[in-house]
Amino acid sequence: MKLYTRTGDEGKTSVIGGGRVRKDDARVEAYGTVDELNSYVGQAVAVLLKAPEEKLQQLAERLILVQHELFDCGSDLCYAAPSPDKMKVSAEMTERLEVWIDESEAQTPPIERFILPGGSESAALLHVCRTVCRRAERRVVTLGVDQPYPDEVRRFLNRLSDFFFAAARLANAALSVPDIEYERGAAVFRRREP
């Protein structure tokens, strides 16, 4: 099998059930940004797997599952006319992220203010994932202005960006690296009671 097909040389690509569209079509931008996010997640996994801390190994395992689910997101976004029976992203996937967020939050010190992205290398990469995930979510919202898309993908991406934030804080905590608060910010966070 050859890796190149030459079918995209004219700046168009195929979407499922929609023929050929420009490579800058909103649908292609959406699933392309999800693909970009997946690459950053892979980079974060590579760094986390080098760390000896058990919490970071578990986090790497979770991120590998997220990578598979990001492929599911991309697949669902490829449909010009999404059909519920063909979609892979489910509400259960989004709900599992909420459980992971709560577990991570319980293992980190409370925060009151916004924090600067960074700290450890692992946390810095997870913050990059968070911001690219937010961009992917925005691309999906833009897609929805003129074209149909599966709603659960948007919800999943929204929750996933929250998970990346919690995971970045967990990585710093596991490595005993403090988060750095944005010093000119007001107290905006309140820890929820279980």
Automatic annotation (TrEMBL):
Enzyme class: transferase
Catalysed transformations (reactions): 2 cob(II)alamin + reduced [electron-transfer flavoprotein] + 2 ATP = 2 adenosylcob(III)alamin + 2 triphosphate + oxidized [electron-transfer flavoprotein] + 3 H(+); 2 cob(II)yrinate a,c diamide + reduced [electron-transfer flavoprotein] + 2 ATP = 2 adenosylcob(III)yrinate a,c-diamide + 2 triphosphate + oxidized [electron-transfer flavoprotein] + 3 H(+)
Keyword presence, Cell membrane: no
Organism placement in taxonomy: Bacteria, Bacillati, Bacillota, Bacilli, Bacillales
One GO molecular-function entry: corrinoid adenosyltransferase activity
PANTHER family per record: CORRINOID ADENOSYLTRANSFERASE, CORRINOID ADENOSYLTRANSFERASE MMAB
Signal peptide: none
Domain Cobalamin adenosyltransferase-like: start-end pairs: 3-170
Residue stretches in coiled coil: none
Top-level taxon: Bacteria
Subunit structure: Homotrimer.
Keyword line: ATP-binding, Cobalamin biosynthesis, Nucleotide-binding, Transferase
Family from the record: Belongs to the Cob(I)alamin adenosyltransferase family.
EC number: 2.5.1.17
Pathways per UniProt: Cofactor biosynthesis; adenosylcobalamin biosynthesis; adenosylcobalamin from cob(II)yrinate a,c-diamide: step 2/7
Nucleotide-binding listed as a keyword: yes
GO annotation terms (biological process): cobalamin biosynthetic process
Protein name: Corrinoid adenosyltransferase
